[in-house]
Hints:
alpha+beta; six-stranded mixed beta sheet
Amino acid sequence: MKITTLRRLAAAAIAPTLAVGTVVAAPSAQAAPNSYAYSAARWLADQLTDGVVHNAQWDFDDYGLTLDVALALEALDTRPGTTATILDAFAQDPTRYTQYEDSKYAGATGKLAVTVQLAGRDATAFGGHNLIAEAEQRVVTTGASAGRAKDLGDDYSNTITQAWVVRALSTADSDLADDTVGYLLKQQCDDGSFRTDMKDEACATGAGTIDATALALQALDEAQDAGEPGLQDDIDEGVDWLLDQQRPDGSFLNDGAANTNSTGLAAATLKTLGEPGAAGSAASWIVSRQVTDAVGEDTLLANELGAIAFDDAALAAGKTAGITVESRDQWIRATAQAAVGVDAQLAATKLTVSAPTGFVSGGKKIAVTVKGLAAGEKVTVTIPGARVTGTAGDAGSATVQVPTPTSTGKRTIAVTGARASRSGAGTVQVLGAKKLPVSVRSASVKKGKGQRVTVSGLAAAEPVTIRYRGKDVKKGKASSKGTFSHTFTVGSSAGKKAIKVTGAFSNRTGSRTFKVTR
Length: 518
Protein backbone atom coordinates (compact mmCIF):
# COMPACT_ATOMS: atom_id res chain seq x y z
CA MET A 1 0.00 0.00 0.00
CA LYS A 2 1.29 3.46 -0.86
CA ILE A 3 2.12 5.83 1.97
CA THR A 4 -0.17 8.50 0.52
CA THR A 5 -3.05 6.05 0.57
CA LEU A 6 -2.34 5.15 4.17
CA ARG A 7 -2.33 8.83 5.11
CA ARG A 8 -5.64 9.37 3.38
CA LEU A 9 -7.28 6.41 5.11
CA ALA A 10 -5.94 7.44 8.48
CA ALA A 11 -7.20 10.99 7.97
CA ALA A 12 -10.63 9.82 6.93
CA ALA A 13 -10.87 7.40 9.87
CA ILE A 14 -12.97 5.00 7.85
CA ALA A 15 -11.41 1.56 8.28
CA PRO A 16 -13.71 -0.73 10.29
CA THR A 17 -12.57 -2.56 13.43
CA LEU A 18 -8.99 -1.33 13.58
CA ALA A 19 -9.45 2.38 12.97
CA VAL A 20 -12.81 3.43 14.26
CA GLY A 21 -11.58 5.19 17.37
CA THR A 22 -12.19 4.71 21.03
CA VAL A 23 -15.59 5.05 22.68
CA VAL A 24 -15.34 7.53 25.52
CA ALA A 25 -17.42 8.85 28.36
CA ALA A 26 -17.08 12.24 29.97
CA PRO A 27 -13.90 12.32 32.08
CA SER A 28 -15.73 13.92 34.99
CA ALA A 29 -17.78 10.74 35.41
CA GLN A 30 -14.77 8.45 35.23
CA ALA A 31 -13.15 7.05 38.36
CA ALA A 32 -9.47 6.20 38.46
CA PRO A 33 -8.78 3.41 35.94
CA ASN A 34 -8.25 -0.09 37.23
CA SER A 35 -4.78 -1.60 37.09
CA TYR A 36 -5.33 -3.28 33.71
CA ALA A 37 -6.58 -0.08 32.10
CA TYR A 38 -3.82 1.98 33.69
CA SER A 39 -1.21 -0.45 32.39
CA ALA A 40 -2.69 -0.16 28.90
CA ALA A 41 -2.68 3.64 29.14
CA ARG A 42 0.97 3.67 30.18
CA TRP A 43 1.92 1.43 27.25
CA LEU A 44 -0.02 3.63 24.83
CA ALA A 45 1.76 6.73 26.06
CA ASP A 46 5.08 5.03 25.38
CA GLN A 47 4.12 4.55 21.72
CA LEU A 48 4.22 8.29 20.97
CA THR A 49 7.06 10.16 19.32
CA ASP A 50 6.86 13.93 19.81
CA GLY A 51 3.15 13.62 20.54
CA VAL A 52 2.15 11.41 17.61
CA VAL A 53 2.15 7.74 16.67
CA HIS A 54 4.72 7.20 13.95
CA ASN A 55 4.22 4.25 11.64
CA ALA A 56 7.76 2.93 11.22
CA GLN A 57 6.73 0.38 8.62
CA TRP A 58 5.49 3.00 6.16
CA ASP A 59 7.32 6.00 7.65
CA PHE A 60 4.42 8.39 8.29
CA ASP A 61 2.76 10.00 11.29
CA ASP A 62 -0.61 8.34 11.89
CA TYR A 63 -2.79 11.15 13.19
CA GLY A 64 -5.99 9.10 13.31
CA LEU A 65 -4.37 6.48 15.51
CA THR A 66 -2.81 9.23 17.62
CA LEU A 67 -6.28 10.56 18.38
CA ASP A 68 -7.37 7.05 19.36
CA VAL A 69 -4.62 7.12 21.98
CA ALA A 70 -5.70 10.57 23.19
CA LEU A 71 -9.34 9.52 23.38
CA ALA A 72 -8.44 6.45 25.40
CA LEU A 73 -6.43 8.51 27.86
CA GLU A 74 -9.25 11.05 28.16
CA ALA A 75 -11.84 8.35 28.72
CA LEU A 76 -9.67 6.82 31.45
CA ASP A 77 -9.00 10.26 32.91
CA THR A 78 -5.30 9.57 33.16
CA ARG A 79 -2.04 11.05 31.80
CA PRO A 80 -3.43 14.50 30.97
CA GLY A 81 0.08 15.68 30.16
CA THR A 82 0.30 13.12 27.37
CA THR A 83 -3.04 14.24 25.94
CA ALA A 84 -1.87 17.84 26.08
CA THR A 85 1.28 16.92 24.15
CA ILE A 86 -0.83 15.18 21.52
CA LEU A 87 -3.15 18.14 21.06
CA ASP A 88 -0.22 20.54 20.95
CA ALA A 89 1.14 18.52 18.06
CA PHE A 90 -2.21 18.69 16.26
CA ALA A 91 -2.58 22.39 16.94
CA GLN A 92 0.52 23.08 14.84
CA ASP A 93 -1.56 22.25 11.75
CA PRO A 94 -4.93 20.50 12.19
CA THR A 95 -5.33 20.15 8.43
CA ARG A 96 -2.65 17.48 8.37
CA TYR A 97 -5.39 15.27 9.74
CA THR A 98 -8.66 16.86 8.63
CA GLN A 99 -7.68 17.49 5.00
CA TYR A 100 -5.69 15.91 2.20
CA GLU A 101 -4.92 17.95 -0.87
CA ASP A 102 -8.37 19.19 -2.01
CA SER A 103 -10.31 16.77 0.19
CA LYS A 104 -11.83 17.70 3.53
CA TYR A 105 -12.95 14.95 5.89
CA ALA A 106 -16.09 15.25 7.99
CA GLY A 107 -15.28 12.36 10.32
CA ALA A 108 -11.72 13.45 10.96
CA THR A 109 -12.86 17.00 11.73
CA GLY A 110 -15.53 15.72 14.09
CA LYS A 111 -13.16 13.29 15.78
CA LEU A 112 -10.54 15.97 16.37
CA ALA A 113 -13.20 18.36 17.66
CA VAL A 114 -14.47 15.73 20.13
CA THR A 115 -10.93 15.12 21.41
CA VAL A 116 -10.38 18.85 21.86
CA GLN A 117 -13.71 19.23 23.66
CA LEU A 118 -13.00 16.34 26.03
CA ALA A 119 -9.64 17.84 26.91
CA GLY A 120 -11.36 21.08 27.89
CA ARG A 121 -10.04 23.11 25.00
CA ASP A 122 -11.96 25.35 22.62
CA ALA A 123 -12.87 23.51 19.43
CA THR A 124 -13.91 26.79 17.82
CA ALA A 125 -10.39 28.15 18.10
CA PHE A 126 -7.92 25.31 17.81
CA GLY A 127 -4.69 25.75 15.90
CA GLY A 128 -6.17 28.66 14.00
CA HIS A 129 -9.24 26.68 12.98
CA ASN A 130 -12.89 26.64 14.03
CA LEU A 131 -13.38 22.89 13.99
CA ILE A 132 -17.10 23.19 14.73
CA ALA A 133 -17.69 25.51 11.79
CA GLU A 134 -15.61 23.26 9.56
CA ALA A 135 -17.63 20.23 10.65
CA GLU A 136 -20.85 22.15 9.97
CA GLN A 137 -19.61 22.92 6.46
CA ARG A 138 -19.51 19.20 5.76
CA VAL A 139 -23.20 18.69 6.69
CA VAL A 140 -25.65 18.45 3.81
CA THR A 141 -28.56 20.83 4.47
CA THR A 142 -31.02 20.03 1.67
CA GLY A 143 -32.52 17.06 -0.10
CA ALA A 144 -32.66 13.40 0.86
CA SER A 145 -29.14 13.53 2.32
CA ALA A 146 -29.92 16.42 4.67
CA GLY A 147 -28.06 15.89 7.92
CA ARG A 148 -25.36 13.71 6.42
CA ALA A 149 -21.81 14.74 7.29
CA LYS A 150 -20.14 14.23 3.93
CA ASP A 151 -16.51 14.51 2.87
CA LEU A 152 -15.50 17.07 0.29
CA GLY A 153 -13.79 15.28 -2.57
CA ASP A 154 -13.62 11.50 -2.42
CA ASP A 155 -16.34 10.64 0.07
CA TYR A 156 -15.41 8.13 2.76
CA SER A 157 -18.18 9.13 5.16
CA ASN A 158 -20.07 6.35 6.94
CA THR A 159 -21.99 5.77 10.14
CA ILE A 160 -18.81 5.84 12.20
CA THR A 161 -17.71 9.22 10.86
CA GLN A 162 -21.28 10.49 11.22
CA ALA A 163 -21.17 9.57 14.89
CA TRP A 164 -18.10 11.73 15.46
CA VAL A 165 -19.79 14.74 13.87
CA VAL A 166 -22.94 14.17 15.92
CA ARG A 167 -20.87 14.19 19.09
CA ALA A 168 -18.92 17.29 18.14
CA LEU A 169 -21.93 19.35 17.07
CA SER A 170 -24.15 18.19 19.94
CA THR A 171 -21.54 19.17 22.51
CA ALA A 172 -21.10 22.53 20.78
CA ASP A 173 -24.90 23.08 20.69
CA SER A 174 -24.74 23.56 16.94
CA ASP A 175 -27.90 24.40 15.00
CA LEU A 176 -27.10 21.44 12.75
CA ALA A 177 -26.83 18.91 15.57
CA ASP A 178 -30.50 17.87 15.24
CA ASP A 179 -30.09 17.23 11.53
CA THR A 180 -27.01 15.06 12.00
CA VAL A 181 -28.76 13.06 14.71
CA GLY A 182 -31.73 12.50 12.43
CA TYR A 183 -29.53 11.21 9.64
CA LEU A 184 -27.67 8.94 12.04
CA LEU A 185 -30.99 7.44 13.14
CA LYS A 186 -31.75 6.53 9.53
CA GLN A 187 -28.85 4.08 9.79
CA GLN A 188 -30.48 2.20 12.68
CA CYS A 189 -32.02 -1.04 11.43
CA ASP A 190 -35.22 -2.67 12.60
CA ASP A 191 -33.30 -4.96 14.98
CA GLY A 192 -31.70 -2.00 16.78
CA SER A 193 -28.26 -2.29 15.16
CA PHE A 194 -26.57 0.35 13.02
CA ARG A 195 -25.22 -0.38 9.56
CA THR A 196 -21.76 0.89 8.66
CA ASP A 197 -22.46 2.10 5.11
CA MET A 198 -24.85 5.06 5.17
CA LYS A 199 -27.84 5.52 2.90
CA ASP A 200 -30.50 8.18 2.58
CA GLU A 201 -33.23 5.57 3.04
CA ALA A 202 -33.97 4.26 6.51
CA CYS A 203 -32.55 0.82 7.28
CA ALA A 204 -35.42 -1.65 7.13
CA THR A 205 -33.66 -4.95 7.78
CA GLY A 206 -30.93 -5.86 10.23
CA ALA A 207 -27.50 -5.29 8.73
CA GLY A 208 -25.60 -3.70 11.57
CA THR A 209 -22.10 -4.19 12.97
CA ILE A 210 -20.79 -4.12 16.50
CA ASP A 211 -18.43 -1.21 15.85
CA ALA A 212 -20.95 1.03 14.08
CA THR A 213 -23.63 0.28 16.66
CA ALA A 214 -21.35 0.95 19.63
CA LEU A 215 -20.14 4.29 18.29
CA ALA A 216 -23.60 5.37 17.16
CA LEU A 217 -25.02 4.64 20.61
CA GLN A 218 -22.28 6.68 22.24
CA ALA A 219 -23.10 9.56 19.91
CA LEU A 220 -26.83 9.34 20.64
CA ASP A 221 -26.14 9.22 24.37
CA GLU A 222 -24.09 12.42 24.17
CA ALA A 223 -26.72 14.06 21.99
CA GLN A 224 -29.35 13.17 24.57
CA ASP A 225 -27.20 14.62 27.34
CA ALA A 226 -26.93 17.79 25.27
CA GLY A 227 -30.73 18.09 25.18
CA GLU A 228 -31.79 16.14 22.09
CA PRO A 229 -35.23 14.67 22.95
CA GLY A 230 -36.80 11.33 22.10
CA LEU A 231 -33.66 9.21 21.82
CA GLN A 232 -34.02 6.80 24.73
CA ASP A 233 -36.04 4.18 22.87
CA ASP A 234 -33.51 4.17 20.04
CA ILE A 235 -30.67 3.81 22.53
CA ASP A 236 -32.45 1.00 24.37
CA GLU A 237 -33.04 -0.92 21.14
CA GLY A 238 -29.36 -0.61 20.22
CA VAL A 239 -28.26 -1.77 23.66
CA ASP A 240 -30.59 -4.77 23.48
CA TRP A 241 -29.07 -5.71 20.13
CA LEU A 242 -25.54 -5.47 21.53
CA LEU A 243 -26.48 -7.66 24.47
CA ASP A 244 -27.91 -10.25 22.11
CA GLN A 245 -24.62 -10.35 20.19
CA GLN A 246 -22.42 -11.06 23.21
CA ARG A 247 -21.02 -14.57 23.29
CA PRO A 248 -21.06 -16.73 26.43
CA ASP A 249 -17.36 -15.99 27.03
CA GLY A 250 -18.07 -12.22 27.03
CA SER A 251 -16.55 -11.43 23.63
CA PHE A 252 -18.03 -9.83 20.53
CA LEU A 253 -17.45 -10.81 16.91
CA ASN A 254 -16.48 -8.83 13.84
CA ASP A 255 -16.38 -10.58 10.48
CA GLY A 256 -17.09 -13.83 12.27
CA ALA A 257 -14.16 -13.71 14.70
CA ALA A 258 -13.81 -12.42 18.24
CA ASN A 259 -11.39 -9.53 18.71
CA THR A 260 -10.47 -7.04 21.39
CA ASN A 261 -11.37 -4.00 19.27
CA SER A 262 -15.03 -4.78 18.81
CA THR A 263 -15.24 -6.27 22.30
CA GLY A 264 -13.61 -3.16 23.78
CA LEU A 265 -15.97 -0.82 21.96
CA ALA A 266 -18.98 -2.83 23.07
CA ALA A 267 -17.74 -3.02 26.67
CA ALA A 268 -17.19 0.73 26.91
CA THR A 269 -20.60 1.44 25.42
CA LEU A 270 -22.44 -1.01 27.64
CA LYS A 271 -20.74 0.32 30.74
CA THR A 272 -21.68 3.89 29.83
CA LEU A 273 -25.27 2.91 29.07
CA GLY A 274 -25.93 1.06 32.31
CA GLU A 275 -25.04 -2.57 31.55
CA PRO A 276 -22.12 -3.19 33.93
CA GLY A 277 -22.49 -6.97 33.99
CA ALA A 278 -22.20 -7.45 30.24
CA ALA A 279 -19.43 -4.85 30.12
CA GLY A 280 -17.54 -6.61 32.89
CA SER A 281 -17.75 -9.95 31.12
CA ALA A 282 -16.38 -8.35 27.96
CA ALA A 283 -13.60 -6.68 29.95
CA SER A 284 -12.46 -9.98 31.41
CA TRP A 285 -12.26 -11.51 27.95
CA ILE A 286 -10.06 -8.62 26.85
CA VAL A 287 -7.80 -8.92 29.90
CA SER A 288 -7.02 -12.50 28.96
CA ARG A 289 -5.44 -11.10 25.76
CA GLN A 290 -3.44 -8.41 27.56
CA VAL A 291 0.27 -8.60 28.27
CA THR A 292 0.68 -8.95 32.03
CA ASP A 293 3.70 -10.09 34.03
CA ALA A 294 2.43 -13.65 33.87
CA VAL A 295 1.70 -13.54 30.12
CA GLY A 296 4.92 -11.80 29.15
CA GLU A 297 7.28 -13.77 31.39
CA ASP A 298 10.00 -15.60 29.42
CA THR A 299 8.58 -14.33 26.11
CA LEU A 300 9.45 -11.51 23.73
CA LEU A 301 6.49 -9.57 25.16
CA ALA A 302 8.17 -9.12 28.54
CA ASN A 303 8.88 -5.44 27.83
CA GLU A 304 5.41 -4.68 26.44
CA LEU A 305 3.39 -4.80 29.67
CA GLY A 306 -0.11 -3.37 29.20
CA ALA A 307 -0.34 -3.95 25.45
CA ILE A 308 -3.49 -5.74 24.28
CA ALA A 309 -3.42 -8.20 21.39
CA PHE A 310 -6.07 -7.98 18.68
CA ASP A 311 -6.91 -11.67 19.01
CA ASP A 312 -5.50 -15.00 20.13
CA ALA A 313 -3.37 -15.36 17.02
CA ALA A 314 -1.78 -11.95 17.57
CA LEU A 315 -0.99 -12.79 21.19
CA ALA A 316 0.60 -16.11 20.23
CA ALA A 317 2.67 -14.44 17.52
CA GLY A 318 3.76 -11.74 19.94
CA LYS A 319 5.03 -14.29 22.43
CA THR A 320 7.28 -15.89 19.85
CA ALA A 321 8.31 -12.91 17.71
CA GLY A 322 7.57 -9.91 19.92
CA ILE A 323 5.79 -6.82 18.61
CA THR A 324 7.49 -6.25 15.28
CA VAL A 325 7.63 -3.15 13.11
CA GLU A 326 4.94 -4.71 10.95
CA SER A 327 2.63 -5.72 13.80
CA ARG A 328 3.01 -2.68 16.11
CA ASP A 329 0.32 -0.72 14.29
CA GLN A 330 -2.25 -3.43 15.01
CA TRP A 331 -1.20 -3.70 18.66
CA ILE A 332 -1.57 0.07 19.16
CA ARG A 333 -4.99 0.13 17.50
CA ALA A 334 -6.18 -2.83 19.51
CA THR A 335 -4.91 -1.39 22.79
CA ALA A 336 -6.31 2.09 22.17
CA GLN A 337 -9.80 0.74 21.60
CA ALA A 338 -9.72 -2.04 24.17
CA ALA A 339 -8.22 -0.03 27.05
CA VAL A 340 -11.51 1.67 27.87
CA GLY A 341 -13.30 -1.66 27.70
CA VAL A 342 -10.79 -3.19 30.12
CA ASP A 343 -11.75 -0.54 32.65
CA ALA A 344 -15.20 -2.12 32.89
CA GLN A 345 -13.77 -4.99 34.99
CA LEU A 346 -16.04 -5.83 37.89
CA ALA A 347 -14.78 -5.93 41.47
CA ALA A 348 -14.06 -9.21 43.25
CA THR A 349 -16.99 -10.66 45.14
CA LYS A 350 -18.30 -13.89 46.64
CA LEU A 351 -21.24 -15.32 44.74
CA THR A 352 -24.06 -17.22 46.44
CA VAL A 353 -24.96 -20.61 45.00
CA SER A 354 -28.28 -22.37 45.54
CA ALA A 355 -28.85 -25.95 44.40
CA PRO A 356 -31.45 -28.59 45.27
CA THR A 357 -31.11 -29.96 48.78
CA GLY A 358 -31.46 -33.64 49.46
CA PHE A 359 -30.78 -36.17 46.74
CA VAL A 360 -30.79 -35.59 42.99
CA SER A 361 -30.84 -38.21 40.28
CA GLY A 362 -27.58 -38.77 38.40
CA GLY A 363 -27.61 -37.80 34.72
CA LYS A 364 -30.56 -35.44 35.12
CA LYS A 365 -30.63 -31.65 34.96
CA ILE A 366 -30.95 -29.56 38.09
CA ALA A 367 -31.58 -25.84 38.51
CA VAL A 368 -28.63 -23.94 39.99
CA THR A 369 -29.22 -20.32 40.99
CA VAL A 370 -26.36 -17.86 41.38
CA LYS A 371 -26.84 -14.55 43.19
CA GLY A 372 -24.58 -11.55 43.71
CA LEU A 373 -23.89 -10.98 40.01
CA ALA A 374 -24.17 -7.72 38.14
CA ALA A 375 -27.12 -7.40 35.78
CA GLY A 376 -26.15 -8.91 32.44
CA GLU A 377 -23.02 -10.58 33.78
CA LYS A 378 -22.06 -13.90 32.24
CA VAL A 379 -21.71 -16.76 34.69
CA THR A 380 -20.23 -20.23 34.29
CA VAL A 381 -21.49 -23.13 36.38
CA THR A 382 -19.26 -26.19 36.56
CA ILE A 383 -20.00 -29.61 38.02
CA PRO A 384 -17.88 -32.71 37.32
CA GLY A 385 -18.52 -33.61 33.70
CA ALA A 386 -20.49 -30.50 32.77
CA ARG A 387 -19.98 -26.78 32.20
CA VAL A 388 -22.92 -24.46 31.52
CA THR A 389 -23.07 -20.69 31.02
CA GLY A 390 -25.85 -18.24 31.81
CA THR A 391 -26.58 -14.54 32.05
CA ALA A 392 -27.72 -12.63 35.12
CA GLY A 393 -31.04 -10.84 34.99
CA ASP A 394 -31.79 -7.34 36.23
CA ALA A 395 -31.84 -8.56 39.84
CA GLY A 396 -28.28 -9.89 39.56
CA SER A 397 -29.17 -13.56 39.66
CA ALA A 398 -29.02 -16.33 37.08
CA THR A 399 -30.61 -19.77 37.07
CA VAL A 400 -29.13 -22.40 34.78
CA GLN A 401 -30.01 -26.01 34.13
CA VAL A 402 -26.97 -28.19 34.81
CA PRO A 403 -26.71 -31.94 34.06
CA THR A 404 -25.51 -33.95 37.03
CA PRO A 405 -22.88 -36.70 36.94
CA THR A 406 -24.16 -40.26 36.55
CA SER A 407 -22.20 -41.58 39.53
CA THR A 408 -23.13 -41.39 43.19
CA GLY A 409 -21.44 -38.91 45.49
CA LYS A 410 -21.40 -35.44 46.96
CA ARG A 411 -20.42 -33.15 44.09
CA THR A 412 -19.09 -29.61 44.18
CA ILE A 413 -20.74 -26.94 42.06
CA ALA A 414 -18.26 -24.18 41.18
CA VAL A 415 -19.50 -20.87 39.74
CA THR A 416 -17.50 -18.05 38.20
CA GLY A 417 -18.77 -14.69 37.06
CA ALA A 418 -17.02 -12.26 34.75
CA ARG A 419 -13.64 -12.99 36.34
CA ALA A 420 -12.04 -15.62 38.53
CA SER A 421 -12.31 -13.45 41.65
CA ARG A 422 -16.08 -13.37 41.29
CA SER A 423 -16.86 -16.90 42.36
CA GLY A 424 -18.78 -19.16 44.67
CA ALA A 425 -19.45 -22.82 45.34
CA GLY A 426 -22.16 -25.19 46.46
CA THR A 427 -22.71 -28.92 46.74
CA VAL A 428 -25.27 -31.42 45.60
CA GLN A 429 -25.79 -35.06 46.59
CA VAL A 430 -26.06 -37.18 43.46
CA LEU A 431 -27.41 -40.70 43.38
CA GLY A 432 -26.59 -42.73 40.31
CA ALA A 433 -28.49 -45.71 38.94
CA LYS A 434 -27.94 -48.83 41.02
CA LYS A 435 -29.21 -52.37 41.56
CA LEU A 436 -29.94 -52.49 45.28
CA PRO A 437 -29.11 -55.72 47.20
CA VAL A 438 -32.19 -57.20 48.91
CA SER A 439 -32.10 -60.04 51.46
CA VAL A 440 -34.82 -61.91 53.41
CA ARG A 441 -34.65 -63.66 56.72
CA SER A 442 -36.21 -66.88 55.43
CA ALA A 443 -36.40 -68.42 52.00
CA SER A 444 -39.69 -70.03 53.02
CA VAL A 445 -42.37 -68.60 55.31
CA LYS A 446 -45.68 -70.10 56.40
CA LYS A 447 -48.78 -68.18 55.44
CA GLY A 448 -49.87 -65.58 57.97
CA LYS A 449 -46.36 -65.38 59.43
CA GLY A 450 -43.81 -62.57 59.27
CA GLN A 451 -40.94 -62.02 56.82
CA ARG A 452 -38.09 -59.67 57.45
CA VAL A 453 -36.50 -57.91 54.46
CA THR A 454 -33.28 -55.91 54.46
CA VAL A 455 -32.16 -53.49 51.76
CA SER A 456 -28.50 -52.46 51.56
CA GLY A 457 -26.38 -50.31 49.26
CA LEU A 458 -28.47 -47.22 49.91
CA ALA A 459 -27.10 -43.78 50.69
CA ALA A 460 -27.41 -42.65 54.27
CA ALA A 461 -30.93 -41.29 54.85
CA GLU A 462 -32.00 -42.23 51.33
CA PRO A 463 -35.77 -42.71 51.00
CA VAL A 464 -36.76 -46.32 50.33
CA THR A 465 -40.04 -48.06 49.54
CA ILE A 466 -40.79 -51.78 49.97
CA ARG A 467 -43.57 -53.26 47.83
CA TYR A 468 -45.17 -56.68 48.27
CA ARG A 469 -47.92 -58.15 46.12
CA GLY A 470 -48.23 -54.81 44.26
CA LYS A 471 -48.71 -52.67 47.35
CA ASP A 472 -46.42 -50.46 49.39
CA VAL A 473 -45.87 -52.14 52.73
CA LYS A 474 -43.31 -49.74 54.12
CA LYS A 475 -41.62 -46.44 53.39
CA GLY A 476 -38.68 -45.07 55.33
CA LYS A 477 -35.11 -43.86 55.21
CA ALA A 478 -31.85 -45.76 55.21
CA SER A 479 -29.59 -45.85 58.24
CA SER A 480 -26.26 -44.08 58.40
CA LYS A 481 -24.77 -47.31 57.04
CA GLY A 482 -27.11 -47.33 54.05
CA THR A 483 -29.42 -50.16 55.15
CA PHE A 484 -33.12 -50.44 55.80
CA SER A 485 -35.07 -53.35 57.34
CA HIS A 486 -38.73 -54.13 57.85
CA THR A 487 -40.85 -57.10 58.99
CA PHE A 488 -44.27 -57.65 57.46
CA THR A 489 -46.97 -60.34 57.38
CA VAL A 490 -46.83 -62.42 54.19
CA GLY A 491 -50.61 -63.09 54.00
CA SER A 492 -52.57 -66.25 53.32
CA SER A 493 -51.76 -66.82 49.65
CA ALA A 494 -49.23 -69.57 49.15
CA GLY A 495 -46.67 -69.72 46.38
CA LYS A 496 -43.63 -67.86 45.07
CA LYS A 497 -43.71 -64.21 46.09
CA ALA A 498 -41.65 -61.18 45.11
CA ILE A 499 -40.44 -58.23 47.10
CA LYS A 500 -39.54 -55.11 45.14
CA VAL A 501 -37.68 -52.12 46.59
CA THR A 502 -37.09 -48.64 45.21
CA GLY A 503 -34.65 -46.08 46.51
CA ALA A 504 -34.89 -42.31 46.03
CA PHE A 505 -35.31 -42.68 42.25
CA SER A 506 -36.80 -45.19 39.86
CA ASN A 507 -33.37 -46.24 38.57
CA ARG A 508 -32.31 -47.43 42.04
CA THR A 509 -34.17 -50.70 42.50
CA GLY A 510 -33.82 -54.23 43.76
CA SER A 511 -35.93 -57.38 44.22
CA ARG A 512 -36.01 -60.72 45.98
CA THR A 513 -38.29 -63.77 45.89
CA PHE A 514 -39.28 -66.29 48.56
CA LYS A 515 -41.95 -68.95 49.12
CA VAL A 516 -45.09 -68.78 51.19
CA THR A 517 -46.18 -72.27 52.34
CA ARG A 518 -49.35 -73.64 53.93
